Each structure stands twice: as structure tokens, then as C-alpha cells.
Amino acid sequence: MRKGDFVSCATMIANRDPAEFMCPDTIDLARQDHSYIACGYGPHLCLGANLARREIAVGIHERLTRAHLSNQRGYVADDLWGSCIRAQKFNFDWS
């Protein structure tokens, strides 16, 4: 690395530290530890962070309680790893 080189740090990586998070590779929507830094930290905390978290929680709850989901027969999800942990696709039957 040389003086003036651009350095990039993906903050999502900090939220997967096994010293801080039990089962950091598991998606747990009920996780109670809110020490992650996705919305900034300290004086740089996003002013809308609490509203955004609440909107996401309500939106997910409403969507899932109004839908009847069933996994398509024989489908197995493939995990993709990159800057985010996510499934490549979901094959659900919505009814």
C-alpha cells in the first residue's frame, strides 16, 4: 500500500465477528444484540435508524402474516457469499 491509495472497508463484515455475535453466519431475525454498525455509530449514527428498523420489522411481519408460504417440492436454497449473506433465490409458492 502506498500513500494516497484508496482504502475501502465493508462495514457489513464487522457484523459477523464471532467474538461479538453468537452464530454470526446465521440469519436470525429475533437476534437481540443491536451492537451492529449498519446505520453508523456514535455521532455518525443515522438519524432515521430507529424508524428504518421499525419499518423493516413491521413490513416483514405484515408480509409474512398475510401470505401462505410453502417451499416448492424438492427445492434446496443455494447460499451466496459476498458483501452480503443471502440466498440466490427463493422458490416459494404464494397462496
UniProtKB/TrEMBL annotation:
GO molecular function, one term: heme binding
Transmembrane regions: none
Cofactor(s) of this protein: heme
Ranges in coiled-coil conformation: none
Similarity section: Belongs to the cytochrome P450 family.
Protein name: Cytochrome P450 protein
